[in-house]
């Protein structure tokens, strides 16, 4: 038989140490790390964030309510307590990495936009109109300067 080289796929796996984003429940929108796999549908998570409002207590979470992220905490022992998880969370700078991710920036921008007042929405409208006018003006200038074919 021929030698076959089997490689692990480069996608996000359910594994101990994988950081998840909670989609439903009382901790919606918060990050946690998988500490133990209970069965094929549930995991034990713990979210020892450095910010008080982002802390997720240790609990069992259905995988249907979680989104796996690209971030992992390597060498996290199975069923590690909150203390070691918090230490490794801080060492791997999960909060900072998450804040730099595209998904976090998009959701933060959407939240900011959703919470605008009427006057702030009006100012955004005026700024967009000004930007559109400048783009149209420069495009017209470029078309006028281009040689006629």
From TrEMBL:
InterPro entries, per database record: KOW (IPR005824), Rib_uL2_dom2 (IPR014722), Ribosomal_eL14 (IPR039660), Ribosomal_eL14_dom (IPR002784), Translation_prot_SH3-like_sf (IPR008991)
Keywords of this entry: Cytoplasm, Ribonucleoprotein, Ribosomal protein
Localization per Swiss-Prot or TrEMBL: Cytoplasm
One BP term from GO: translation
Taxonomic path: Eukaryota, Fungi, Dikarya, Ascomycota, Pezizomycotina
Protein name in the entry: KOW domain-containing protein
UniProt entry tagged with the keyword Acyltransferase: no
GO CC annotations on file: cytosolic large ribosomal subunit
Similarity field: Belongs to the eukaryotic ribosomal protein eL14 family.
Domain spans labelled KOW: 13-40
